[in-house]
Amino acid sequence: MIHTLVVSLPSLITLFWAATLTFDRQRDNRARRFLPVFMFTAFLLYVCYIPFFNGQIQRFVYLLPLYTMASLLVFPMYYHYICLVTTYQRYQPRFLLHYLPAFLYFIALGVGVLTLSGKDLVIIEQAVAKNHFAQLLFSSGRASFVAILFVSSRIVFAGLVIFTLVNNFRRIRVYNVSIRDFFSNPEARNINNLSFILFALSVTSILSIVFNAIGFQFFSKSDWLLIIPSGILSSMLYLIGFVGNRQEQVCLEVECEEEKFMEEQKVDGVDIVDDSFIQRFDECFFEKELYLKKDLKIWDVCDAIESNRTYISNYINRSFGLNFCSFVNQKRVEHAMKMLSIEENDIYSLNYIAEESGFSSMNSFYRAFAKEYGMSPGKFRQVRPLSASKEAVGAAS
User: Rounded distance, CA 153 to CA 147, Å?
Assistant: First the structure.
């Protein structure tokens, strides 16, 4: 009973999430719709392991093409999932090129395994059982052909792991930086949870490579040893499914806002940053205090001053040396400081001050205030009699 559970656990977890994500279509989230394809591929991968750990080596040999294909698909698929979350509204046809190695190995190994003679089949079975594929690389015959394909596929697998991790970490980092040009509250739209999952996946990947190098034959000796790879892989796969089930396709919001603004405003492409633009901008930010609006987006500013996002973003960057988020939060912090400087406002909580200043959370308020003044809002209240300006506050801290 324990053996069956340990051997089947990764495949059961992936099948659970594949079914859950497939039949729950309530949200318009193409990234989330793609995730069950990844999970089903992972399910095929771990199902192929079951005959091996049940001692059915010959059956595992015949599943070798499917196992190899699935292993070469899972990491490119997770890369495409991250792309759909952060960058693309729809699946890109060019992604199919990343699957080419998997299908080529599937065909080649399929031909190799199905044409094995009885003697060569026994040789491959022994190589699988004892993890001695390297000894067949320089021999002749069909067994050598199959061994070369399988060993080279493991090298390709390691390359895909590195490619996926490096590019996904880069893509997530670029996304988390870029959203600060669009939103005053980027914390609500960052994807640090995917960074955590990617880190977990990288740990799992390294362990998978290590397990492959050691040979799963080592873990098949005892159910208690087998719990190590099974438990780690199952935990990571469950986390990927859990986070993916909750993750929105954040790139959709940016593209939808852009499309909506262009439809409503029909901004003229000849707009320039002239005196009129600067006057409208100053009136919007310094007189009407638009920055106090919670969850302010750059498109709200576009609508208010009748200009486009590119001009506004470039103007803020050149004139103030800040991105949109930092500029807005700087103004919000200045407003909060003014409120905190008035003794009569001591009756108000810091949470109230944060809300009145446009912040949507206390964490973002504390972080922005500390960045600007070098101390927390509560500490500012304590040293307030000693300071009348930002410079004095900095000296007091």
Answer: 10
Average pLDDT over residues 21-26: 76
- Three-class secondary structure of residue 352 per DSSP: helix
Assigned token pair, 314? 């470039």
Of 99, 97, 86, the residue nearest 37 (C-alpha): 99
**54: three-class secondary structure by DSSP:** coil
Confidence of residue 82 (pLDDT cuts 50, 70, 90): confident
Q: Lowest mean pLDDT: which of 145-159, 207-221, 231-245, 249-263? A: 249-263
SS (H, E, C) 259-315: HHHHHHHCCCCCCCCCHHHHHHHHHHHHHCCHHHCCCCEHHHHHHHHCCCHHHHHHH
The radius of gyration of the chain from alpha carbons, rounded to an integer in Å, stands at 28
Distances (CA, A) of 239 to 48, 49, 200: 22, 21, 9
DSSP code per residue over 205-250: HHHHHHHHHH-HHHHTT-HHHHHHHHHHHHHHHHHHHHHHHH---T
Higher-confidence position of 356 and 265: 356
